[in-house]
């Protein structure tokens, strides 16, 4: 079961791995729970930036930050994930080093349709940069009369759930670092979801 979870993981599966542990053969580096983003960045190492949301729509973080890392070089896999709120409204942020594989892959949903691609400014004050973010909503198949719907609109984010995906870049000790980030939400509006993304700041070792 642990091997299957490492390849394709939901938030619940991440928590299961942290609770029961895995053998050194499956987790060459670490499976842990970090109390802070600084600690999560320290666990993952100096070549991975962990991004912390500064806007959470008033939702408290639930539990620890799940951290997974294993493998080396081209086979390296990393993951840091946290959940804010309970049920609705709530959101989960999952991230990894851009050059790494997902150690715990966010669950892909067939209901997702693209809302739009937007430009958001992320980063710490004084060093913000503009990145492209793709916003999705789980609208497909929700209306039987329009089951072949390909695109969703902004209102569908709060009605059915939404996601935003982006590639975040920063510099640390003169070296460029990039992270793949996905935020999945339930009960957040389009504006709130985009604001969560634009409030991301990097935390490095």
Describe the structure.
This protein has helices at 2-7, 11-20, 37-44, 155-160, 190-198; strands spanning 30-34, 50-53, 61-70, 77-85, 90-97, 101-102, 113-122, 129-137, 162-172, 175-186, 200-203. It has one domain. The strands form 2 sheets. Strands 1, 3, 4, 5, 6, 7, 8, 9 and 10 form a 9-stranded mixed β-sheet that branches. A two-stranded antiparallel sheet has the order 2-11. With 205 residues, the protein is of the alpha+beta class. The chain contains 5 helices and 11 strands. The two termini are 32 Å apart. Helix content is 19%, strand content 41%.
- Please tell me the overall pLDDT: 85
> How many H/I helical runs?
5
How many domains comprise the coordinates? 1
Overall geometry comes to: globular
Structure summarized in a few sentences:
This protein has 205 residues and is of the alpha+beta class. Helices cover 19% and strands 41% of the residues.
List the helices and strands and how they pair.
Layout: H1 2-7, H2 11-20, E1 30-34, H3 37-44, E2 50-53, E3 61-70, E4 77-85, E5 90-97, E6 101-102, E7 113-122, E8 129-137, H4 155-160, E9 162-172, E10 175-186, H5 190-198, E11 200-203
Parallel strand pairs: 4-6
Antiparallel strand pairs: 1-3, 2-11, 3-4, 4-5, 5-10, 7-8, 8-9, 9-10
């Amino acid at each position: 079961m642990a091997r299957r979870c490492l390849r394709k993981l939901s938030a619940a599966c991440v928590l299961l791995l942290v609770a029961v542990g895995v053998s050194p053969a499956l987790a060459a580096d670490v499976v842990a729970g970090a109390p802070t983003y600084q600690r999560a960045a320290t666990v993952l190492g100096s070549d991975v930036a962990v991004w912390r949301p500064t806007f959470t729509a008033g939702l408290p973080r639930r539990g620890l930050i799940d951290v997974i890392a294993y493998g080396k070089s081209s086979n390296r896999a990393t993951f840091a994930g946290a959940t804010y709120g309970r049920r609705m409204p709530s959101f989960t942020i999952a991230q990894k080093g851009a050059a790494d594989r997902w150690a715990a892959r966010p669950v892909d949903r067939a209901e997702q349709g693209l809302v739009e691609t937007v430009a958001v400014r992320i980063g710490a004050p004084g060093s913000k940069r503009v990145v492209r973010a793709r916003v999705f909503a789980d609208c497909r198949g929700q209306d039987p009369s329009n089951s072949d719907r390909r695109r969703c609109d902004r209102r569908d984010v709060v009605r059915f759930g939404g996601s935003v995906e982006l590639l975040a870049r920063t510099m640390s000790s003169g070296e460029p670092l990039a992270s793949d980030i996905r935020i999945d939400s339930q009960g957040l509006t389009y504006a709130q979801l985009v604001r969560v993304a634009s409030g991301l700041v990097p935390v490095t070792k």
